[in-house]
Write the structure tokens for this entry.
Amino acid sequence: MAAFNNTDLAAFRGVWVFCEQRGGKLMPTDFELISEGRKLADELGTEVCGVLLGDGVEGIAKELGGYGADRVYVCESPRLKDYTTDAYAKLICDLVMEKKPEVLLIGASNIGRDLGPRMAARLHTGLTADCTHLDVDVSKYIEFLRESSTIDLTTQKFNMEDRNLKMTRPAFGGHLMATIICPRFRPCMSTVRPGVMKKAPFDQAKADACIIEKPAFSLQDSDLRTEVLEVVKATRQMVDLAGAKVVVSVGRGISKDVQKGIALAEELAEVLGGVVGGSRATTDAGWLTADYQVGQTGKTVRPKIYIALGISGAIQHIAGMQDSECIIAVNKNDTAPIFEVADYGIAGDLFKVVPLMIEEFRRVTAK
Amino acid sequence: MKIIVCVKQVPDTTGKVAVNPDGTLNRASMPAIINPDDKNAVEAALQIKDQTGCKIVVVSMGPPPAESMLRELLAMGADEAVLVCGREFGGSDTFATSQILAGAINKIGLENDDLVFCGRQAIDGDTAQVGPQIAEKLNLPQISYVADIQLGKGEVICRRMLEDGYMTVRAKTPCLLTCIKELNMPRYMSVAGVMDCYCKPLCVFNYDTLKDDPLIEPDTIGLKGSPTNIFKSFTPPQKGVGTMLEGADRAACAKLADSLAEKHIV
């Protein structure tokens, strides 16, 4: 293969999304990223392509079209059934070098965060981790800054023709935001936080029109230096925090009676049709398993209602829930930082307040 | 056999984070600590040393004060330390950092039964990119998110965590692993270790030490060699003040429920 020249920016066109599958099923983040990719591709005047690797996965590819993919590249082999760094990085890098996409988005899952950096290093390009906002169009980016930053825009100069992908991510638990660009190399690569980008409504006609393409590839056993001996799914059903409309989270404040605290949160969640989550303190203490954790090192949630019970509001936690539509906090300490982001605050003992809250929410939801 | 462990000194962000008026981080206001995941990586290496007597070399890229962190790791039980330090390395993004650390590892030398450990990610950047990027530069197989390590003959078998379970993965050595906190509980420095740590070798690699490595080119390291640039950095606006409901009683709860019902939130 001829040397891959990735500094001839004009030669790169198209927005690609790595579509992760586990056990032959697409991940919810795939739909979020295809929807976001559609938005970016429209701004760039180009197409959105999904890249799907697996074994016997062609049948699930069309669904990606329903969220905006014009085309899906499907590579199938028994060697691709389970994710391995070597096989996936080789195939996608080879395809990138051949087809030259301008943008490549990858979900920031434990797999995406293994694959993305390996590929960026091989392709000699930049990768921005765990992005929460993406823009191409400069006027839209300025609008985003107007809403989401304290920057004085009157002092800023922008090149309105700039077609770089502007990748924004939180740093230091959301205390700082940084917008990163990759101006000299292509593709611009970004891993994107699951649960952050909005999924577009599914459109069956678009799904039917989606083109499935099966590019030729070569993959030898010698290309694989790691071997997956087994894949074990957690026996327990994992809690779907990212997809929940209502999240009721508990924190250190339940320490007085952990079981009762969790039971109260569960009951409140049930009344509102939601799920239970927890702060890092609760998962570190083993009161809840890691999949319940909301925050910078856990999951990002943006439900309609987020209720924080006995959570003081460490920056790591706030980073994972501050975009919720309505935040309600109950904490004994009326100066707890959680009240700074809450729409409604009650300073009091959660063990006394929550039972009353359950009754009152029952009353209004019964109407 | 030896294990090279890559570590980073980071500001402790678990307390209060101070931001300068220009939107950059006020590092001076926060204590410097060993990055937590990196400490798990060092502990994993120490446990293998306890079993096999292998050698442990800790490597860090950072400013001269990072030496104190390396001394601490020598006191925990590491055998040698390398501080990669130079003006030319400043401003590196993850790509350029991995380029430099891979160059430093080449200089130390990797044998067939050697291992490279990194923490999964550093708390000041949360990128989790440098480990896999070093593996790529050194052409090593990688296993990330490692929660258990079984050492075999010329191979390792690791438990690699996923969000919904785990994979058991085998790799031939030499290979690179990135470690998570579930792997172990890092030990403290011992008194004897503290006494010893100033007798153990700590070398500094600067640009001149590494410049003959093909990875170390002026256009692949430092700010100039970084593919990514910061376009803007800013602080998010404070959210509008919410309503504190007076009295932690039924009236407050009723007011809350009515208010949400009125706004059709419930």
Remarks:
- The CA atoms of residues 200 and 256 of chain B lie 63 Å apart.
- Chain B has a mean pLDDT of 93.
